[in-house]
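pasting for the record
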Amino acid sequence: MSNINDSYFDGIYKELWRTIIPDILTVKEVDFMIPYFNLQPGQKVLDLMCGYGRHSIGLAKKGIKVTAVDNLDAYINEINDIVAKEHLPVKAIKTDVISYLPTEKYELAICMGNSFNFFKEADALKLLTTISSCLQPGGHLLINSWSIAEIAYKNFISSNSSQVGDVQFKNELKFLLHPTRIETESTMITPDGKSEIKAGVDYIYSLNEMEKMMNQTGLLLKEVYSIPGRKKFTLGEPRAYLVAEKK
């Protein structure tokens, strides 16, 4: 049980993610999306599991209309605050992503920051079906993952720790089967000894399994990069960017 108020934890946890995903990486990812997918001002992008909206805000600043969807109030509230202040074309929706039914058609859907791997196979298939149904003909899907099998098997460690300011994070990880997954228990400890425990699961899919799921849902895997648009993925690299096209 948490001994730290939620807003404090949210702030520290956000800073931790910024050490994992630095702002410059987000800038590079957005700068890749615009020319690679030939996005034009006024076109529409669906950002699923958008988090704090790092891609949604970046794309909107380029004139792209974004629908940002996540299941956490803190994320959506922050996006709405920025959108209101900067008058950006972002519609932020707080809802369960798996049951979400888009009402518009999009040139591009994105699922970044390893968030696709939060879902077990049945939900992953449902999510891909939803994405396929709302893409324009020839539209694209971009997934960023560091939990595909080709990465996870080589890089798995059972524990690690990190520091954000004066707060310590300790992670204990278990590699499990049926379904293949990594379960993580993260403990945040403040200097006065208070703590917060957060559990998470990353489901592990091989590139072959990802491709099969995409094929089942009307999507065609076109390419896998380790550096978006510049370097094709090779075994053991820390990140993968999967580009799929609606058939």
